[in-house]
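Consider the following assembly input.
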Amino acid sequence: MIEEKRNFWDWINSIDRGIIYLIIGIVIILPILLGLKEEVQISPSVRSAYEMIESLDSNDVIIISIDYDPASMPELQPMLKAILRHAFEKDVKVIMMVFWPLGLPIGTEGLEEVAKEYGKVYGEDYVNLGYRPGDRAVMIDMGKEIRNFFRTDVNDILLDSHTMMRNVHNYNDIALIVGLEAGRFGEFWVQYVGSRYNQRIVLGVTGVMAAETYPYLQSGQIEGLIGGLKGAAEYETLIEKPGFGLTGMAAQSWAHIAIVMFIIIGNIGYFMTRRK
Amino acid sequence: MFETISVWIAGGLTLCIFSFLYGDNPVYKFAEHLYVGFSAAYWLIYVWHFTIKQMVINPIAAREPGSLMLIIPLFFGFLMLSRWFPERYSWISRWSIAFTVGIGAGLVTIGQIQGLLLPQLKATILPLATGNWHTNINNFLIVIGTVATLTYFYFSRREGSAVSKFSRVGIIFIMIAFGSSFGYTVMARVSLLIGRMIFLFGNWFHIVKPL
Amino acid sequence: MKKRVPLVITFVTGFIVIISFFIPHRPFGPLETDTLIWYSIILGFTLLIGVDSLVRLHVRQMRRRKEGWWYSIVFFTGFFYCLVIGIISIMRTPNPFQPGTIFFYGYKTILIPLQSTMFALLAFFVASASYRAFRARTLEATLLLIAAVIVMIGRVPAGYKLWTRLPGIANWVFNVLQMGAMRGIMIGVALGAVAMSLRLILGIERTYLS
């Protein structure tokens, strides 16, 4: 009996990784196939971000910075769409720009898709500036004059040709910057634009970056923080327009529970075999 | 039709990458090299469109004042590719590197001090005796956590000394921070997998609502 | 010439950027703008350095016919396919990255699934690592584990269903307990970065010249 118990704990301590992969695959696929939905509780940081955009109106212009690539698309693209829907609902003008080269096509696709939903016109309601190399250099000089770096938009059209850009020259004319961040560029927005030009900033970040961004929220350097897929789901709940964020929540819950169970089982197995 | 072929190719490539779960194999390597090759050319197109064309050629073509000077940074940009030049001239790429390093260093100096150090230090100076005990404890924990972490990283310590004991408090806070960070990282990675699964079962197999 | 001129360039450019922060008026303000535009253009070419190295590596592998050399053919297939559709798109539209162009379709068909899936694989590895390596051997490891579990469960809807206070506790861990350590790390890194930047500007650190 004792011999059998030892073998059982040895087995618990050495489950094949293929089984772990299979379990993770199942707990993610099943809720998606079953179409399970979960409600989310709104965290204060996301509510602050929402309130910030809610306070804007049709006279305001915001910059949305696409600083992610397809690797972070599942987390940040839902945020982009939710924020665009919120902004366009309030007739806020949107300027899109990109600091991650691989993010331009997906950012543009998201922008065009949501703009079409709301019947927004390019040049009057939104503009896509595209990309310029130099990240911090661009951010700093945009505080003097956007046209120093962006003479034309992504389509090679002069910025002054667009109705909405006629009175937009620098950060004094920008009500808010929304940075969608998979890397360090959120910090750059805060350090080089927020501090230097007192620009209001809201950041949407991947889960990996969230921990490092909370200190900026606590210090008041950013107005709100949307973290990970859960953050996107919370924002979708607030604007009452469910999207991919909410769709993925059930699978997220199940997967997290599965991983926590793995941790617990692994530790139980470890302690039981250590007793030998 | 075109869209269908595109989705099938994307789905097939997704499965090629997932095959890595079984172990490194030729199918995965094929997909990996295809990705690297495609990305490499993507950067070429990008540099042409946004750096050379939009920042240099277009202003010169439009005869903007001072635009001819942009040929200088264009020339220095090409100098970065020092391997294209004979060995005895390749040292000139150092000028371009020095330019970018100098600017980068200047930007870091300003940004880190004005944008991070001062605001974060200011945010750490928190009142420890407000009317609310809950706030008092939270503020105390933040202040102690910050100072203890800095003590751990910056000061060498003799075993058993007060600094050593205070550093240990720092380690505890650091471990909690790393644990929280790990929890959020798990969330991020799982989200990416959910995205791919919805692509496979939605966009490709049409079983669920597509992305 | 080979070492002195670059050191002078580093010092002058760093100095211009720092002094422009304090004196934004003429001549430093416009000088800073021009300097930053030049920096941006030169920096754009750094993307090409990696491309150049990759292409040379694969050409070398094909020439030497080492084991696995045929993967270099796959590399060049992807490379030239992207280059061709990129050039076609550039010739047809002012913005080759626009949805609807052949370049965008290539990006959507090849780059998005490959890059997304490579990172999606990490979910499996994170689960496997959690099971195999996450052991509460010491006090520190146990604290790390507890914090991770609280955040993992507290940040999903299941956490609220398990215990309605759990999301609040997870928020508290983020906003209070981990705040101090993260801030300490950030301050430490910032001090190090500033010190290194000053060393570079003043020419004390010269490794970038070799």
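Residues 2-34+252-274 of chain A form one domain. Ask yourself how this observation constrains the way the partners meet.
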